[in-house]
What does this fold into?
Amino acid sequence: MKNRWIVASLVPLLLACAVPCMAAGSGVYIRSRDEPVRQSAVVKEAAARDVVFFGEFHDSAAIHEAELSFLKELYRETGNRLILSLEMVESDCQLVLTNYLQGKIPEKEFLSLSRPWPNYVDAYRPLIEFAKEKGIPVIAANIPRRIASAEARTGSLDSVAPEDRQYLPQDLEPLTGAYRSKFAAAMREQNGKMKIPEAKIDAFYRAQCLKDAAMAERIEEGRKRIPDAVVLHITGAFHSDEGLGTAAYLSRHHPDLSIYIISPFKGSAAAYQQQNHKTGNVILCVKK
It folds into this structure.
């Protein structure tokens, strides 16, 4: 009887171990139209690259859970070569962020000075706390919002304060081609909700490129500090899908960089495989 109880209790555990862990319960990784792949396989591929873009939908709890799981496993694979980069923290908050990571200021002070996103506690705090625990450097990658807003509002950087010009990227030339077309299409689709006049799309696009160029330069600077570094950049998917946006600026200035892109998809792996587009090296499919 005792032996039968032991066998019965082991069956669920054995079955659980037999099912591949694709994305730590938060979704399923697939390579384009391929079969699902384990997170560990994706991590090993990512660890061999220079920069890894993990695209997200900012309001997806499932993706945030997957990001934390991915960060932890990538750290186990790369150790002190890993740098975390976040779109969600602006570059003028870098010193405050670094001081918090190094234990020089309490969290309350960090939060009061860093303008955290409304969903910071649930979505991004776990990433920063893990980085703090393990001593992982974190890049405050985004350009201060007031600078991008000035560009979007006026179509010019003339009104940017002198003390803010240090945060401007050196490359102020907007991307052309596919990214411009994709952005304009997205703005027109949202036009009913956002009430963006057609004449303002160009200014909004220049502001978008300003963010992308700035994030690319912050990533470049971060890599210079650690030889053989792997940068994991957490960002909205629009900034990296199809190798556009921030990824395109990186490639423009450093064509030798090995870039790896993870793109999110709301729906099942089967639903994604029925579509004809490719958005990244690897797709993370999550429930809608």
Summary: Confidence is low (pLDDT under 50) at residues 1-21.
